[in-house]
Amino acid sequence: MAVTEYDRAPLVEESTTDSPLARKLEALWETEPGIVGFFTTVDHKKIGIRYIVTAFAFLVVGGLEALVMRIQLARPNMTLLTPEQYDQLFSMHGLTMIFLYALPILSGFSNYLFPLLLGSRDMAFPRLNAFSYWVYLASGIFIYASFAMGHGANDGWFNYVPYALKAYNPGPNMDFYALGMVFLGISTTVGSANFIVTAFRTRAPGMSINRLPIMTWGTLTVSFGNLFAVPSVSLAFFLLWMDRQLGTHFYDTTADGQPLLWQHLFWMFAHPWVYVIVLPAMGMVSDGLPTFCRRPLVGYTAVVLSTVATMVLGFGVWLHHMFATGLPFLALSFFSGSSFIITIPSAVAVFAWIATIWTGRPVITTAFLYFASFIAMFTIGGVSGVMTASVPADFQLTDTYFVVAHIHYVLIGINLFGVLGGLYFWFPKMTGRMLSERLGRWNFWITFIGFNLGFLPMHLTGLFGMPRRIYTYPPDLGWNTLNLVTTVGAFMLAFGILLLFVNIFHSLRHGRIAGPNPWDGPSLEWAVPSPPPPYNFAVIPVVASRHPLWEKRLGEGIGESSVARGLVLDHGKETIGTTVLDAQPDVILKMPEDSWSPFTVTLGMSVGFTGLILTYWTPYGWAAAAAGLVLTGLGVLVWLWPERKLGQVAEHAHA
Amino acid sequence: MERPGAFGLTVGLSIGLSAALGGCTTGDLPMNYLRTFGARGDPITALTWGLLVQSIVVVVLVSLAVILGIYLRRSRFEHPEGEREPLVRRSGGITFIGVGIALTLVALLGSTVWTVATLAAINDPPSDPPLTIAVRGQQWWWKVTYKGSPDQQFETANEIHIPVGEPVRLELTTGDVIHSFWVPSLGARMDLIPGQTNVTWMEANRPGIYRGQCAEYCGKQHAHMALRVVADPPDQFQKWRQNQLRPAAEPAAEIAAFGAERFLLRCGACHTVRGTPAGGGVGPDLTHLMSRGSIAADTLPNTPGHLAGWIADPQAIKPGNRMPKVDISGPELTGIRTYLETLR
């Protein structure tokens, strides 16, 4: 295109997916097929699905690790695994599920759904989005390379020093974990920044901040959380790596370092992280459940405010992971109190969901079953959390299987169940086909029963005093039966998940054709075809209420939302930029073409991090690290090289 | 095998969480903390039960609300005529949130008050503890020092004797990584952290053996870092203490004397036997080894057979532990074991 226009009022027209406009947009937005397109695409839908597939792959790997451990623990004094093997398995299982599955899966859904929910054509920074995925994949591979070499992390996911220091842990295990986490932190950080800008600035005109779907609120909130929390853990791991390889003494008491510094830095990140990996899932339930209850969510404002409040309070409770470290009475009381208070916003969500069911007309589908059971699982994970918030009780509960049960109700109950419900809900949108309901019921009930059979009795294992992270136990402590039951439950849960994959592969080919809006959903993603075209919306819709597709039937909103008729933006890849609060049209955003840069920069960074890990074996690693730095720098230069057609403002003509 | 009592309790609690716990002794569930014995543990246990019951009530109520709501309000997505269930706009939902939050607030307020009251109650022992015991965690055993004037101070390992009904002060340190001292049935719990001395206390109100275990992951043999607290009646405790203060007796029998000689050569660099030149500080003090009920940090019962097996190949029993497998001959092994059996 020869001329870039900087000031124009877009036409408002009616358009469908088979209009000439749509064909033009298709040509503009389509990703090149084949291998080139695979590496260069910036389409948020492709990236979102990649995130989901990759995160599920890590879920399977982490799940298999868990099953091996459950065999070892099925009976007392088993010798299937050596202590070192067991230690690596529980560490890799934990960090895989928490870092490589739980957030990435939510990022995947958010990536796929954000522009569709918001009435936009892509994330605010499409290349950054691709970059965030590639870095996630690369850091996952980086961390797993250690496990493949037999040097997997072996100090648990929270990795306490001094056991993680070189004096006690001389192998490269911890270096892999430390550098891998710094690497992964880059992905999380850029991804979060992208979600924030996308949610704030690229909404359809009229989608004021009080009309955002709750899921968007969840991701927006946790993205802010990440920007504050991730630096803490990146720093913690970087200091650890320096202590190990460069001879610093941040954590080393023999040189006046402080081991508790690690715990503070880690939990300042990791407690907020717990909310990071549940709030978007709660948002998915808050959007999905009402659709099946045939009514809007009860208490939208209360739920949104409680989402934000949870995240804010989540930064004030980290000390409750350290109640037994010898803290003074006042600190114990304060953090116990703050940990109790955080229950309130969670309770708001629970009662809002219950109210939505009671005042709605629930229709039972597999997705609904996942969402509804989520409420009960959420409550179990919540009340066991309240118990551990009580300092004296926590003296006994902490580091026993009670806490293991608690964290699994949080991660499986509040993350996985929401995700699976979300998958049944949005799979038709993503693929154009429905998941089988028949297989879905089997999948749900086996997963649900297996999970509860495995993990509800585990609370009792904890109350009977079984400490976590022991590779075996003697037969005379009363833990045998409970452990066997948990193992049976774990295998049943795994079988349930297997059925999910069967359902996915079956339905991809043979599933019923979904159509644009199979569930009669209220939000914008249901207005476009399934799967959506590369440009999402042929014309940018205009929104007049919280439920654009329901508003007529509900008598909601001032004026009328307009989906078929809207802004025409077809001068190259474009979408609309709107104001933060009211979503008034503000600027036409020029969107980038597909690009190699995200991939090549990731490659450069991978060389750099690989160089750093190689310094464990050879000083030439430093050369590789330097090469990686140079490659990354060059890659960024190419990426950021100014392009006229991406210009948002006109250069002033020289007189 | 697990005892039937434990199995019954497991099932009983799993189903209805009955109060069958009264019939249980520490013997069936030595690590159980739903029942404790003493001024430190009892307030914690009451609180734990209170929170547990509250939690179960909440979960049952919420689950019932969900199930009942679905049952009463369910509808069909597509009606036979092909029409969809129409949207509903019923008000009154917000009342659920209001009532729910009010109830939650009451429960939380109660929990908070009870928590802080309990915390205050267990913060200090009921009376000034006459006895101070220093516990030092090591990978993967517990070094125990009874503090006192030089002639009253002595060292032992993995088995802590305390007098019944008397609070005991604990000074907790670590020789390497973070460990956590935990005796569930006495409610004693505190981390051992490098560079600091954590102080807590415990008390047992009836004689017995209370099992403890390291509760913070500390490496390969974290699973086998257990300990015993033995609560003795006061006179028995004094007898035990006097015995511990004595140096080891000279072995009388020929084979034991041979064993003593080999012990010094093979084991003395790491283990101490007071009254002999063996003065190593890497492993546990063995001066009165036979007064302990178990070996290898409560991993095996202290029988001659287990003792011999442990000396012969400690790595088979606790892989990765700091005691190396030493190539010793049969007669040497017999000698050392026989000598150790004299250390009463």
Question: Would you summarize the structure shown here?
Answer:
Chain A is mainly alpha-helical and 655 residues long. Chain A is 62% helix and 4% strand. Chain A is globular, with a radius of gyration of 25 Å.
What is the secondary structure topology, with strand pairs?
The complex is a heterodimer of chains A (655) and B (344).
Chain A: E1 12-14, H1 20-29, H2 34-40, H3 44-74, H4 83-118, H5 126-148, H6 173-201, H7 214-245, H8 259-276, H9 279-293, H10 300-314, H11 329-341, H12 343-358, H13 366-389, H14 391-397, H15 401-431, H16 437-463, H17 480-510, E2 540-542, H18 551-554, E3 562-567, E4 574-578, E5 585-590, H19 597-614, H20 620-640
Antiparallel strand pairs in A: 1-3, 2-3, 4-5
Helix pairs in contact in A: 3-4, 3-5, 3-17, 4-5, 4-6, 4-15, 5-6, 5-19, 6-7, 6-19, 7-8, 7-9, 7-10, 8-10, 9-12, 9-13, 9-15, 10-12, 12-13, 13-15, 13-16, 15-16, 16-17, 19-20
Chain B: H1 4-16, H2 41-73, H3 93-123, E1 131-138, E2 141-146, E3 154-157, E4 159-163, E5 168-174, E6 179-183, E7 188-192, E8 198-202, E9 208-213, E10 226-232, H4 234-245, H5 254-266, E11 294-295, E12 300-301, H6 304-312, H7 314-317, H8 330-341
Parallel strand pairs in B: 1-5, 4-10
Antiparallel strand pairs in B: 1-2, 2-3, 5-8, 6-7, 9-10, 11-12
Helix pairs in contact in B: 2-3, 5-8, 6-8
Keywords (chain A): Cell membrane, Copper, Electron transport, Heme, Iron, Membrane, Metal-binding, Oxidoreductase, Respiratory chain, Transmembrane, Transmembrane helix, Transport
Domain Cytochrome oxidase subunit I profile (chain A): 23-544
Pfam families (chain A): COX1
What would you note in describing this structure?
The complex is a heterodimer of chains A (655) and B (344). Chain A is mainly alpha-helical and 655 residues long. Chain A has two domains: 37-510, Cytochrome C Oxidase, Chain A; 597-640. Chain A has 20 helices and five strands. In chain A, strand 4 and strand 5 form a beta hairpin. The radius of gyration of chain A is 25 Å and the shape is globular. The two termini of chain A are 25 Å apart. The model of chain B is unreliable at 1-5 and 15-25 (pLDDT under 50). Chain B has helices spanning 4-16, 41-73, 93-123, 234-245, 254-266, 304-312, 314-317, 330-341, and strands at residues 131-138, 141-146, 154-157, 159-163, 168-174, 179-183, 188-192, 198-202, 208-213, 226-232, 294-295, 300-301. In chain B, helix 2 runs antiparallel to helix 3 and helix 5 packs across helix 8. The chains are: A mainly alpha (655), B alpha+beta (344). Chain A: The chain crosses the membrane at residues 51-73, 93-118, 130-149, 176-200, 212-241, 261-285, 297-319, 331-355, 367-387, 407-427, 439-464, 484-505, 599-617, 623-641. Chain A: This is Cytochrome c oxidase subunit 1. Chain A: InterPro entries: Cyt_c_oxase-like_su1_dom (IPR023616), Cyt_c_oxase-like_su1_sf (IPR036927), Cyt_C_Oxase_1 (IPR000883), Cyt_c_oxidase_su1_bac (IPR014241).
